[in-house]
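Supplementary Text 2. Reproducibility record for the structural model of the 440-residue chain.

All settings were left at their defaults, and a single model was retained for analysis rather than an ensemble. We include the record here because the model underlies the residue-level annotations in Supplementary Table 4.
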Amino acid sequence: MRPSRLLLLIASLIALASLALVIVPGAPADAVPAIWGLLALAVIADVVLTPGRRRFVLDAPATREMFVGEASDLTFVLRPAGDRGRGAAGPGSAMLRAAWPAGLDGPPQFVLQPQGARSSATITIHARRRGNFALGEVAVLRSSRLRLVDLVASYPCPTRLVVVPNVRAITSGEIDVQIATEAFGSRAALSRGEGSEFHQLRDFVAGMDSRTIDYKRSARHGALVAREMRTEKNHNIVLALDNGHLMREEIAGLPKIDHMINAALALGWAGIQGGDLVGLYAFDARPRLYLPPNGGRHAFAQLRARAADLSYRSIETNHTLAMTHLGQRLSRRCLVVVFSDFVDTTTAELLVENVEVLNRHHVVVFVSMRDPLLTGYQRRAAGDLGEIAAAVAAAGLDRERRLVLEKLARLGVFIVDTDPGGVTARLVSTYLNIKARELI
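Retained model, structure tokens:
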């Protein structure tokens, strides 16, 4: 409980009047104690008439799951305890204050508007980090009946907000459309006709390649029969996520690691839908997680859960140890998708050397993201020497980056380097292309 602005204003005016009554000769100075006594009685009556904290209950939002990078609406309702919507005095207008955990962005305070016997407010919060966040408790500030006192009370808020990797591309059907295009669209003939895995026998008709005729079965059936092939399935795909300090840099409102996890899960879903086995590997200064390749919907659920548990680390990545350890883990030829990044030539050289070794026995896709900030520096009109120096430095970093990616491409590594919004589509398209060409 604290004095309101109205009470402070009235007290200030009474203090000025009291000073005037004391200073001015002949003024009724005996009235000063009476005025202050009336004000004190008014404050006491206001406190007595105003319902206390226990007369109200705060209905907090239900626990929910959110995708990282997206927003969600939360509704708070302050109502009389035991209220069934009739005959109870409402709390009136109130202000609610909440301390949002790091990783959630929301208004620090907002007004609960009266609606009959209740007061409610709906706010929008944004998820900037993955994690399991508990609000704990919130503070509600109400004005008294005469608005002379502000009542501050804490209410428990059991709401938990579970922020998980963003799989909107999967739930919206975007990835399924790409897989359907592979199965039934323009690539279907290549997938079914020029693969290395036997699919079925069919009658030979004019125009078909005579090399597909199975003469033994044709003699048994008394008619020409052709073998129809398709691309091989059950390939191993390993999603290798760099979780070092460089991946904590924010791009487009999210850390790089979250963009990478979102794209990795989209590729994992595409691989599982395409009949392949998908595994997960996470590393920083040392290997942290290895989930062997597996198939089926249950495998994707496990993949998503383990990716959501990856913490944000502030240590430097050791690519040599990570790639060596991964190479020892893999017993057969795999598609290894490395999600990583670099900023200096030393890190880049170590990365290139270790990816080259891994690429000798496996198919490697290297995924990185362009920083819109560097592009902005190069395209912005320079107004002084400082901006010119920034543009030159950005151009130098961009040039070194392109040289490293070109070197990886010459080694036979597939490169996916694009803006954050285009990583998922480019990555899935690259996977479908590799699978159609049977490079694994």
